[in-house]
Amino acid sequence: MQKDTVDFYRRCNFKYFGEYGQREDYPSKFMIGCGGVYAEHVYLILSGRVRQYFINSRGVEKTMLLLSKGDIFGEVTALQRDMDQVATQTLTKVSVCKIPVAYFEKMLRENAELSFSMALMLSYKIRILMPQIQDASFCNAEERLKNLLLRLSIQQGILTRQGIRLPRKYTHEELANMISSTRSTVSRIMKRLAEEGVIKIIDRYIYFP
């Protein structure tokens, strides 16, 4: 059901916004938004992947969402008429469609299917964020990492002969940013998980056997 939900709202996003707005291309590691800015556009990802994260005064990062083709970001800031609270950075080369906020709101008011799709997308994002809050409140670094890898395998996993493979090569630094830990801690835990057979690493891809 979760995959069906994601497929539905992504199809709706392309159907109503894919031909509208201004296309822009960004290189990998490009900062699309840094927070503290009022929304002028909502962004539809045409290709590539981005991450949204918080960063504190000491420069410590916490990745909250990983977004890819068909996902929209900036919608919460637009609807709340508020300043963005997160930083958005490309993980790969990315193409987006920049949709003016006024048009985005107009389409939501006029189209029930799109409004329902947007509600599904927002509820899906909340379902991703809630376990992270639970992990941060109650789990140690190893438990947070295990839970993260399990969630990624469910949300993004590709079935192969070697097991369920995560679709991209996550670095230990990226994983550390997602669980509010350090690269060295993640490296130590990943080594132990591989030795115990919980995961396999093949050509830097993570597999669940």
How would you characterize this protein structure?
Helix content is 46%, strand content 26%. It has 209 residues and is an alpha+beta fold. It has a four-stranded antiparallel sheet with strand order 1-8-3-6. The two termini are 23 Å apart. The mean pLDDT is 91.
Features:
209 residues, alpha+beta, 46% helix
Task: Spell out the blueprint of helices and strands.
Blueprint: H1 2-17, E1 22-26, E2 31-33, E3 41-47, E4 50-55, E5 61-67, E6 72-73, H2 75-80, E7 87-90, E8 94-100, H3 101-110, H4 112-138, H5 141-156, E9 158-160, E10 163-165, H6 172-179, H7 183-195, E11 200-202, E12 205-208
Antiparallel strand pairs: 1-8, 2-7, 3-6, 3-8, 4-5, 4-7, 9-10, 10-12, 11-12
Summed up:
The chain is α+β, with helices and mostly antiparallel strands.
Strand content: 25-35%
Main structural class:
alpha+beta
Low-confidence runs: none
- The total of helices stands at 7
Q: Reading side by side through the largest sheet, how are the strands ordered?
A: 1-8-3-6
Helicity range: 40-55%
Estimated radius of gyration:
18 Å
Q: Could you give the count of β-strands?
A: 12
C-alpha termini separation: 23 Å
Main sheet summary: 4 strands, antiparallel
Instruction: Give the overall average pLDDT.
Output: 91
SSE ordering: HEEEEEEHEEHHHEEHHEE
> Can you tell me the overall shape?
globular
